[in-house]
Amino acid sequence: MIEFPTADKLLAGPLGLWLEQQAVVREKAKVDANNRLFKASLPGVFVLVFVWILLSIPIEMKLFVSFGVAAAVWYWSQAPKRKAVKQVKTGINEAIAQALDLSYVHDLEPGLGFENAKTFKMLPNHDRASFDDMWSGHTGGHPFVLHEARLEEKRGSGKNTRWVKVFQGSILTIGFSRNFHGTTLVSRSGSHSKLFGGARDMVKLGGHRLDYVDMVHPGFEDMFDIYTNDQVEARYLVHPEYVERLIAIEQAFSGQDICALFTGGDLVIALNCGDLFESGSIEAVDDRRLVATTIDQFARLAELAQSLNEPERTGFSS
Fold first, then answer.
1. Nearest to 102 by CA among 2, 11, 192
2. Average pLDDT of every residue of the chain
3. How would you classify residue 198: left for phi > 0, otherwise alpha for psi between -120 and 50, otherwise beta?
């Protein structure tokens, strides 16, 4: 069991002193944001007057332009606040990570875990991706990397083009207790369907032919489809209790579409669970609550993920 710090313990140490120093930064950010809003509002008003009074275009287009101008003014004006919040969030999350002998970085480039998740169709199709909040190190003696991903798909064309969020959640990569003989994918039921319904007998992903595995527990067939190139190992890995642990992770974060991949010596988990670890705020009064929330989120996710890295059972060895 991992021992996690409490919010009170962290705030009683260097983190609390550092956050006190951020009071000046946050107040300055508020002032700068208000000044920016005032400066940008004047030209924004002139643009709106021109659009509504002098420009002969359909009213729908006028509304569209007006919304765009207002959004641009607001977004630009709030940049100082976003910078301050990011600074506070990074400091808090670094302190939590340090207390756990882990590393935390806000900005990152995805690694092998995300590439495997894409290759094995654990994530929806998307046209752009952004990443943040990477926690890495060892938990329970095993390598552990967790980061968040936001995936968006471009839909429509011309003036109707829009970006639609198709995934916002966590990608976990855990070094397993042993190397795997094969590759096993636990996907959501229906992810790989035949033309007229039902799961495919096999799929080709990442240069591997993966065959369908009959679930050892019929009650889970409506939730997951399992594909592997090692039937014996797959049945050993994905037993009913293991599937229950996957479901527990999903339910703990009100998430959806959790899936898992066993490949090489790693277990990769993708969970569409929303935006976690948002410990930063422009208001100092929120600090304790957000620190406690972030610790709780990370603790539950790390402990549940660690429970998936079970010790080797009698009767099977690498």
1. 2
2. 87
3. left
Q: Whole-angstrom Cα distance, residue 291 to residue 261?
A: 31
Query: Is there a contact between 268 and 169 (Cβ–Cβ < 8 Å)?
Result: no
Q: Look up residue 35 and give its two tokens.
A: 């000044």
DSSP 126-191: -SEEEEEEEEEEEETTEEEEEEEEEEEEEES-GGG-EEEEEEEEEEEEEE-SS--SS-EEEEETTT
Of the candidates 119, 111, 122, the one whose C-alpha atom is nearest the C-alpha of residue 246 is 122
71 band by pLDDT with thresholds 50, 70 and 90: very high
pLDDT band at 290 (very low <50, low <70, confident <90, very high): very high
Polymer length in residues for the chain: 318
- Report how far residue 270's alpha carbon sits from residue 260's, in angstroms, rounded to the nearest whole number: 7
For residue 15, pLDDT over 70 is answered with yes
- Residue 197: the pLDDT is 65
* Residue 19 token pair: 């956050």
Share of the chain above pLDDT 90, in %: 50
Instruction: Give residue limits of the domains in the chain.
Output: 1-102, 108-276
First to last CA, the chain: 25
Phi-psi region of 121 (alpha: psi -120 to 50; beta: other; left: phi over 0): left
Give φ, ψ of 230 to 5 degrees. Answer: -145, 95
Q: Is the Cβ–Cβ distance between 120 and 185 less than 8 Å?
A: yes
Instruction: List helix spans (H) across the chain.
Output: 7-11, 14-49, 59-77, 79-99, 112-119, 231-237, 240-252, 287-308
